[in-house]
Amino acid sequence: MFRGLMFESEAAQFQSAGIQVGAEIGQAEERLLSEALSPFGVTRRNHALEMGRLYVVLHCFENEVRSLIRETLEEKEGGDWIERLPPKIKSFAEGRQKSSEQDSWLTGERADLLGFVDFGQLASIIVDKWVHFEDLLPSQHWLKQRMDELEKVRHFIAHNRVLLPTEYQRVYLYIADWNRVVGL
What we know:
The chain is 71% helix and 0% strand.
C-alpha cells in the first residue's frame, strides 16, 4: 500500500511537470463511451452526442440561474430567504425533497431546496422577487420568453427526442444572451 501511495505522489509531480504517467484519462473515457455506443447505429449515436452537448449547456445554464437566485436573495433578503419563496413553489419543492429522501437508493444532493424547484418555476421566483432582479434583467417579458423557450427545449432533450440543427442555434443564442446580460 505504501508503494502505491509513493507512486501516486511521484506520478503527480511528473504530471504537474507535463510528463504523462499512466493512461490518458480522456482517451480511456472516450474508448469506454465508444464501446458503450457501439451497438447503436451511427445516426442514433450522432444524435445522442449532439443532444448530450445541449444537455450539458442547459445543465450549466439552469444551475447558474439557481445560483443567481440563491445569491441575489441571500444578499437582499438574508440567510432565511428560502422561507419567503412563493408558497406554492416552496411547498412543491419541499414535497419533491421529501420524496427524494424516501428514495434511499438515490444518493444525490438533497439539502438544497432550490434544487427541487422545477425549471419553469425559476422564472416565477424571479418575477415574484422582481424588485431584486429588475436592475439585472431587461424585463419580465424578456425573462419569461427565454425561460419558456429553454424549458421547452429542456423537456424535449430530457425525454430523449432529437432537435433539428436550427434549434441548436436558438439554444446557444438564448444562453449566450442571458450570459451577456447577467455578466457571465
